[in-house]
Design a protein that fits this description.
- By secondary structure, the protein is an alpha/beta fold.
- It has two domains: about 200 residues, 2-enoyl-CoA Hydratase, Chain A, domain 1; about 45 residues.
- Helices cover about 45% and strands about 15% of the residues.
- The protein has a six-stranded mixed β-sheet, sandwiched between helices. Strands 5-7 form a two-stranded parallel ribbon.
Length: about 270
């Protein structure tokens, strides 16, 4: 069951959960409550293979303008006042927990990027499986210009676009377009109108539906281990998971469907 949210709009339709960041008055900048709600949603769907895709987008023409420090809690769970430094630590680290949950989600995560894609919003784009951007979207890591650091997103940015480009963007705060983001490998598709963006999203969702949800989840988990697990051990583990997949329900259905020249039962037709 999905949690009740105040800062997020949730819509579940035909295996696609759309999560809309809904703080348009702040260009959807994230406060403590939004981060907590996002973690609750991703925790709730972690084991649910009926939710096959998660679409992240922002309300009213902006994706996310980063973190809203005015929404930072200044007390602990017991209602006791805490120091400004502790409040800042809690606020920042909770975002790290959230972005890790999104990164490791077994579902396919699709980001629809319009308007401001800044700071934490930039980080969320970097953990998406598929990113679709309007060509006029504005991407940046503005933290150093504010005298702070991109503490929780920096590792994910480096993994997404490489150390050289991540250094340039983080140490200059340079703003780049959707096309520039595609050139860097951050974004997969760039569109030139709201209608084209929706068309590309529909094509992407249709493609995801052709793939088995369990196989997608296993594949994503395997890829995320690259670089953190010794290669031979990872390949041994991959063989273990392949054997389980091939003899499991999805593997049997997929191979049978191939031989019978039909679509497997998970391949929903749009």
């Amino acid at each position: 069951m999905l949690p009740t949210c105040q800062e997020l709009l949730l819509s579940l339709d035909d295996g696609v959960l759309t999560i809309t960041l809904n703080r348009p008055q702040k260009r959807n900048a994230m406060n403590d409550r939004l981060v907590e709600e996002m973690m609750a949603v991703f925790s709730a769907i972690e084991g649910d293979r009926n939710v096959r895709t998660v679409v992240l987008r922002g309300a009213k023409g902006n994706f996310c303008a980063g973190g809203d420090i005015s929404g930072m809690r200044t007390d602990n769970d017991k209602g006791q006042a805490i120091t400004p430094e502790q409040a800042a630590w809690n606020f920042n680290r909770s975002f790290g927990h959230m972005i890790t949950l999104v990164n490791q989600a077994p579902q396919v995560v699709v980001c629809v990027l319009e308007g401001a894609v800044l700071g934490g919003g930039f980080g969320l784009a970097c953990v998406s499986d598929i990113a679709i951007a309007d060509k006029q979207a504005m991407f940046a890591m503005p933290e150093t210009g504010l005298g702070i650091i991109p503490a929780q997103i920096a590792p994910f940015v480096v993994l997404r676009i490489g150390l050289t480009q991540a250094r340039r963007l983080a140490l200059t705060g340079e703003r780049i377009s959707g096309q520039d983001a595609q050139n860097l490998g951050l974004v997969h598709h760039v569109t030139d109108s709201p209608e084209a963006l929706q068309d590309q999203l529909a094509k992407t969702l249709s493609s995801v539906k052709r793939c088995a949800p369990g196989a997608n989840a296993e594949t994503k988990a395997l890829m995320l281990q690259v670089g953190s697990t010794e290669l031979e051990a990872l390949l041994d583990h991959a063989s273990d998971r392949f054997a389980v997949a091939l003899t499991g329900a999805e593997g049997r259905e997929g191979t049978q469907a191939f031989m019978e020249k039909r679509n497997p039962n998970w391949a929903q037709q749009s």
